C-alpha cells in the first residue's frame, strides 16, 4: 500500500469498512456514515430488510428466514455483495446520484497493514462495484496516526495502537512509514466474549454480547473506588428461565484484564524489533491508543503500567482512521519532503 498524498488528494470519498462499524467521509460533505457493519436479509427472497444499527438490533431476535450478516471479518470483506448493498443503502440516494454523475470518482480505503492480496482485491472490488473508477489503499495505522494528529511524516518515532473489534494493530511509524508492526487477535469482540464467559461460569447466566453494555458503562464510570453491583438480565444455564443477577464490576474487570494481556505482548514485540534510537523517542512521546476498543475500561492503565511509558487515548478514538483518511483526501497532510543535500 504505497499510495502517495498526491493521489489521495484526487479522491472524493474515504471509507473505513471495519468489522464492527462502517464509516464514510465525503469531500465537502463530512462524515456521512457511522453505522454498524451489519445487514439483515430475507433468505427466502434475498431482499434487504435492514442495515446498520437497525440490523444489529435484530441480531438474535430474528425468525428463521431472516439472516443477520456481518460482511467484514478481521479487516477482510468476506461478503463483497453484502458489503456493496450495505454501503449503497447507507450512503443514501443523494450521494448515490452524485457518484453516478462523477465518472472519475476515486475512493480511499483503509486496510490493516500487511493485508493479503485477496483482502486488498476484495476492498477494490467492493468500491469499484459501487462506481469508483480508482481505489487507493492506505494502511489503517498510518490513517489512524494522522487522524490522532501524530506527526507521522517527521523523522521521529510515534507508536500507535489501533484497538478494533476483531484485532489490535500495533505500529511504530517514522517518516510516514511503518518501521515495525504487529497484529494481535484481541479486540472488543474478544473482551465481550470474556465477559459472557465470566457470567456463564460464575453466575450460570447466558447473555448476548449486546446486553453487557451496562457492565462496560459501570466500569468506565470510575466514579468511586469501587463501582456498585450491576443488574444483568439473561437466561439461566440450567433451567432456561429468564433470570437477573447482581454482578460485581470489579470481578469483570479482572476477567477483561486477563484477555487484554495479548495487547501488551504485541507492544513488547514491536518495541523489541525497533531500533534503539526510535525506542528512546517513544519513551518520551509515549503511546497513542485509537480504535473504539481503546475505551475498554482498564486498557490504558494496563499498557501504562506494563510499558512504563506515557499512554494517551485519542480524543475520538473510534473515528481516528476515517478522520485521517479525510485529512489526506482534503489535502491537510503535506507530502513528505526531504531537502536535497547541498555540497
Ligand atoms: N465505550 C466503549 N467501551 C468499550 N468498548 C467499546 C466502546 N466503544 C466501542 N467499543 C468497542 O469497540 C469496537 C469497535 O471499534 P471500531 O469501531 O474501532 O472497530 P472496527 O474499526 O469496526 O473494527 P476492526 O478495526 O477490527 O475492523 C467494538 O468491539 C466495541 O465493542
UniProtKB/TrEMBL annotation:
Predominant location: cytoplasm
Top-level lineage group: Bacteria
Binding site for ATP: 165-167, 292-295
Database matches in InterPro entries: ATPase_NBD, MreB, MreB_MamK-like
Keywords per UniProt: ATP-binding, Cell shape, Cytoplasm, Nucleotide-binding
Record's keyword annotation contains Transmembrane: no
Keyword ATP-binding among record annotations: yes
Subcellular location: Cytoplasm
Pfam families cross-referenced by the UniProt entry: MreB_Mbl
HAMAP family, sorted: MreB
Function: Forms membrane-associated dynamic filaments that are essential for cell shape determination. Acts by regulating cell wall synthesis and cell elongation, and thus cell shape. A feedback loop between cell geometry and MreB localization may maintain elongated cell shape by targeting cell wall growth to regions of negative cell wall curvature.
UniProt record similarity statement: Belongs to the FtsA/MreB family.
Classification via PANTHER family: CELL SHAPE-DETERMINING PROTEIN MREB (PTHR42749:SF1)
Quaternary structure note: Forms polymers.
Protein name, per record: Cell shape-determining protein MreB
Amino acid at each position: 500500500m504505497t499510495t502517495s498524498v498526491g493521489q489521495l488528494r484526487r479522491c472524493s470519498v474515504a471509507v473505513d469498512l471495519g468489522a464492527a462499524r462502517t464509516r464514510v467521509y465525503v469531500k465537502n460533505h463530512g462524515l456521512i456514515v457511522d453505522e454498524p457493519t451489519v445487514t439483515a436479509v430475507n433468505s427466502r427472497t434475498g431482499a434487504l430488510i435492514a442495515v446498520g444499527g437497525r440490523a444489529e438490533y435484530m441480531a438474535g431476535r430474528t425468525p428463521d428466514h431472516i439472516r443477520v450478516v456481518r460482511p467484514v471479518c478481521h479487516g477482510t470483506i468476506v461478503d463483497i455483495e453484502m458489503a456493496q448493498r450495505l454501503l449503497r443503502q447507507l450512503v443514501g440516494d443523494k450521494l448515490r446520484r452524485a457518484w453516478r454523475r462523477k465518472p472519475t470518482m476515486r475512493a480511499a480505503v483503509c486496510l490493516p497493514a500487511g493485508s493479503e492480496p485477496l483482502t486488498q482485491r476484495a476492498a477494490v472490488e467492493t468500491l469499484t462495484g459501487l462506481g469508483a473508477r480508482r481505489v487507493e489503499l492506505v494502511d489503517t495505522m498510518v490513517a489512524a496516526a494522522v487522524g490522532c494528529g501524530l506527526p507521522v511524516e517527521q523523522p521521529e518515532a510515534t507508536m500507535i495502537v489501533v484497538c478494533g473489534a476483531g484485532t489490535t494493530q500495533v505500529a511504530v511509524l517514522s517518516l510516514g512509514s511503518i518501521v515495525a508492526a504487529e497484529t494481535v487477535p484481541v479486540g472488543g469482540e474478544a473482551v465481550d466474549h470474556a465477559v459472557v464467559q465470566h457470567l456463564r461460569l460464575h453466575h450460570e447466566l447466558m447473555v448476548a454480547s449486546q446486553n453487557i453494555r451496562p457492565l462496560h458503562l459501570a466500569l468506565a464510570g470510575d466514579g468511586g473506588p469501587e463501582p456498585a453491583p450491576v443488574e444483568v438480565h439473561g437466561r439461566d444455564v440450567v433451567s432456561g428461565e429468564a433470570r437477573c443477577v447482581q454482578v460485581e464490576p470489579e470481578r469483570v474487570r479482572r476477567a477483561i484484564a486477563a484477555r487484554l494481556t495479548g495487547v501488551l505482548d504485541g507492544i513488547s514485540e514491536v518495541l523489541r524489533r525497533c531500533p534503539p534510537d526510535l525506542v528512546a523517542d517513544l519513551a518520551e512521546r509515549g503511546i497513542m491508543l485509537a480504535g473504539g476498543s481503546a475505551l475498554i475500561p482498564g486498557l490504558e492503565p494496563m499498557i501504562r503500567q506494563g510499558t512504563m511509558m506515557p499512554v494517551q487515548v485519542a480524543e475520538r478514538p473510534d473515528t481516528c482512521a476515517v478522520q485521517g483518511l479525510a485529512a489526506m483526501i482534503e489535502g491537510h497532510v503535506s507530502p513528505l519532503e526531504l531537502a536535497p543535500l547541498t555540497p
